[in-house]
Amino acid sequence: VLEIEAIQKSKIPILIMGGKEDKGINYDYVQNDLMPLFPSNVSMQLVSGPHGHLWTNAEQFNVLVLKFLE
């Protein structure tokens, strides 16, 4: 709950990324229930791959992060 409150109060852009095949995350819940709680400065990107996608799919991860930072 504290993390959600901190994100809600943040004024800086926030990127949340996750791998579509990550077995530990329920992305339907994140997309439909959690993301609506966040302000418009928060965006979420799903990438192909499991948990640790920054290693397993580094090229796609880097492209999305650089696009976010522009």
Description:
- The protein has a two-stranded parallel sheet.
- The protein is built from four helices and two strands.
- Strand 1, helix 2 and strand 2 form a beta-alpha-beta unit.
What's the order of the H and E elements?
Answer: HEHEHH
Helix content: 40-55%
**Any idea what the shape is?**
globular
Please give the alpha-carbon distance between the first and last residues.
Answer: 30 Å
How large a portion of the residues is in β-strands, by DSSP E?
15-25%
Biggest β-sheet: strands ordered side by side in the sheet: 1-2
Number of helices: 4
Helix/strand/pairing class, anyone?
Answer: alpha+beta
Instruction: Kindly provide the radius of gyration, computed on alpha-carbon positions and rounded to a whole number of angstroms.
Output: 13 Å
Spans where pLDDT lies below 50 across 5 or more residues? none
The main sheet comes to: 2 strands, parallel
- The strand count comes to 2
> Mean pLDDT score, rounded?
84
Tag the structure with descriptive keywords:
70 residues, alpha+beta, 2 strands, 46% helix
Layout: helices, strands, pairs:
Elements: H1 2-9, E1 14-19, H2 27-34, E2 42-47, H3 53-56, H4 58-69
Parallel strand pairs: 1-2
Structure, briefly:
By secondary structure, the protein is α+β, with helices and mostly antiparallel strands. The protein has 4 helices and 2 strands; from the N terminus they run αβαβαα.
